Amino acid sequence: MKFEVTILGSSSATPIFNRNPSAQALNINDHLYLVDCGEGTQLQMLRFDIKASRIDHIFISHLHGDHYLGLVGLLSSMHLNGRSKALRLFGPPELKEIIDLQLKYSDTTLQYAVDFIPTHTDKAEVILENQDITVETIPLDHRIACTGFLFREKRRLRKIIKEKIAELDIPVDYYSAIKKGADYVSSDGKFYKNSEITIAPEEPKAYAYCSDTLYNENYFAQISNADLLYHESTFLNNMLERAQSTYHTTALQAGDIALKTQAKKLLIGHFSARYKTLNELLDEARSVFPDTELAIEGKTFIVGD
Amino acid sequence: MKFEVTILGSSSATPIFNRNPSAQALNINDHLYLVDCGEGTQLQMLRFDIKASRIDHIFISHLHGDHYLGLVGLLSSMHLNGRSKALRLFGPPELKEIIDLQLKYSDTTLQYAVDFIPTHTDKAEVILENQDITVETIPLDHRIACTGFLFREKRRLRKIIKEKIAELDIPVDYYSAIKKGADYVSSDGKFYKNSEITIAPEEPKAYAYCSDTLYNENYFAQISNADLLYHESTFLNNMLERAQSTYHTTALQAGDIALKTQAKKLLIGHFSARYKTLNELLDEARSVFPDTELAIEGKTFIVGD
After folding, report:
1. In terms of domains, do A29 and A60 share one?
2. Considering only CB atoms, which chain A residues are within 8 Å of B20?
3. Could you say which residues of chain A have pLDDT below 50?
4. What letter would DSSP give residue A143?
5. Is residue B15 domain-shared with residue B138, that is, in the same domain?
6. B34 and B99 assigned to the same domain
7. Residues belonging to chain B with any Cβ–Cβ distance to chain A shorter than 8 Å
8. Which residues touch A20 (CB under 8 Å, ≥6 apart)?
């Protein structure tokens, strides 16, 4: 199953030339999920050929402008481009008030439904479950209410080995039970253990999106063993004090979190505009956790790769 | 006196690749004025090296997202970048409510003052007057309340001819009166007409910004004789009906307006996303008013050139 993350923006707070505020497009089994939507996200989508019409779910972590100011523009464009199918929007409760106010004053009634699902920071919650994935909120520790999002693939059924179907003449009616783990007794009474006639599906993959947050162990257990951990790394560790006072994380801390939570791979982003080049941030995170990559606009990362 | 318009965005409604929503930066005597602020304007400013710190006045025509969704991001960045001097913001009364709500939920108190001056559409009003210019609202005819803005240079004083000062030994105390038009009687009793000892200043220039509007003669008298008329041209005239139902203007109509109001030069913009190339729009406007240019991102136009 396809499970990819494309970076649309990786800047924190103020944008800099060629670095947009936070936004990521997830492609999971050819369905698109948008995570955060900083100003200019719809322009980044045009640039990287991410079709807005294919997005049915948008997740907003919190109400700092660099994470949501592109949302009303995107919703408007979907409307103007003739969208009719419903959109699910997840975010802090106050987000709805902000959208409604702006639609009201522009005298716009969207011609598609927006199902708004408020997120909360008191505890982790499963906010979406469909045939492919579950999505949980990750309560983070920021200056205002903020949640990350944990995308987990569902465990797939076992696959029946094609040759065995023909060889043992397994009736179609049995497929469903066998895929779920049942053994098989053939019409001539022979017993086959499930493991002889099926192969295990791939292990479900998980992607954890953590932005913005203070280093805080409270969410470590929840994100443990992520195949890909995106963690904000706003500052270098020589600015630890500044990171703490603004409820952010340093690249060194991000590496430490990846190590402690046994992430398979770390992706760092949400870079302060003071860093014109990003090598130092990458080197610092890699000094603790070597398998680290930079969230660069337009780059796609395969979860579990 | 410098009087220039740099285009930051020229797209209507939905952006297209490489065409941003409405925004223009005016440089008048080395002071910057921002007119409209569609999504991504602060990124365009970074791209074209327009310093946000030099902007002290922002004018928002109306509350359709393509004209103001970049504003809160820009205000936030000014705050984060340490601005302390006051900013004057002109726009529809409801704009303040939109900004205040978003600042509230991001728990942000701007560290500089925003003096908000509401605009109205019942009649034209002078909303700004300083040493260089006056700015008037232009009540337009759009689906929601919308004003254009008319920037007029102030008439400069006459200039005393340098050689005459020495030749006639004009005392410094007389300069002010002579610059305002007074004649001069020298110490030996000789009479000099003002026109003999001064030269006329350049005629004051005017820039009219008209977006978005239905073709409506009500504002023609006010914008007459503009040195540069920016007029929206959302559609080609073969979509006149669509232009009318959405309260917009066609390129042919924009040319006609420039002709009727005796503009010196016409600048067309606010192009529908359906036009990937703009030649047809330009040709259509030029068929009526030859001195027409396209509002292209990054291009600077000198008012009165």
Report:
1. yes
2. 43
3. none
4. S
5. yes
6. yes
7. 13-17, 20-21, 39-40, 42-43, 46-47, 63-66, 69-70, 72-73, 76-77, 80-81, 92, 94, 97-98, 101-102, 105-107, 143-144
8. A8, A9, A10, A11, A38, A39, A40, A41, A44, A297, B43
Mutation pick from B50, B105, B142 vs chain A, by most beta carbons of A within 10 Å, is: B105
Q: How many CB pairs under 8 A join A and B?
A: 105
CA–CA separation, B250 and B237 (whole Å): 5
Residue positions of B annotated with a catalytic role: 66
Q: For chain A, which residues lie within 8 Å of any Cβ of chain B, measuring from their own Cβ?
A: 13-17, 20-21, 39-40, 42-43, 46-47, 63-66, 69-70, 72-73, 76-77, 80-81, 92, 94, 97-98, 101-102, 105-107, 143-144
- State ipTM: 0.90
Last residue of a domain, one of A172, A199, A226: A199
Per-residue pLDDT of chain B (305 residues; tens, 9 = 90+): 899 999 999 999 888 888 999 999 999 999 999 999 999 999 999 999 999 999 999 999 999 999 999 999 999 999 999 999 999 999 999 999 999 999 999 999 999 999 999 999 999 999 999 999 999 999 999 999 999 999 999 999 999 999 999 899 899 999 999 999 999 998 889 999 999 999 999 899 999 999 999 999 999 999 999 999 999 999 999 999 999 999 999 999 999 999 999 999 999 999 999 999 999 999 999 999 999 999 999 999 999 98
Domain holding B38, by residue range, is 3-156+202-302
The continuous run of DSSP H or E covering A90 comes out as: strand A87-91
Q: What is the pLDDT of residue A77?
A: 96
Distant-in-sequence, close-in-space partners of B90: CB < 8 Å, separation ≥ 6 = B57, B58, B59, B60, B116, B117, B118, B119, B127, B128, B135, B149
* Contact across the interface for B39 and A92, Cβ inside 8 Å: no
Cβ partners under 8 Å of residue A61, min gap 6: A22, A35, A36, A67, A91, A140, A146, A147, A148, A149, A209, A211, A212
Domain harbouring A54, CATH code: 3.60.15.10
Chain B residue with the nearest C-alpha to that of A143: B107
From B193's Cα to the closest Cα of chain A, the distance in A is 57
Single out the residue in B170, B199, B228 at which a domain terminates.
B199
Task: Look at B46 and A106 and tell me if their CB atoms are within 8 Å.
Answer: no
Q: Is A196 helix (H, G, I), strand (E, B) or coil?
A: helix
- Total domain count, chain B: 2
Q: Six-digit token pair at B43?
A: 């990124």
Residue of chain A minimizing CA distance to B13: A77
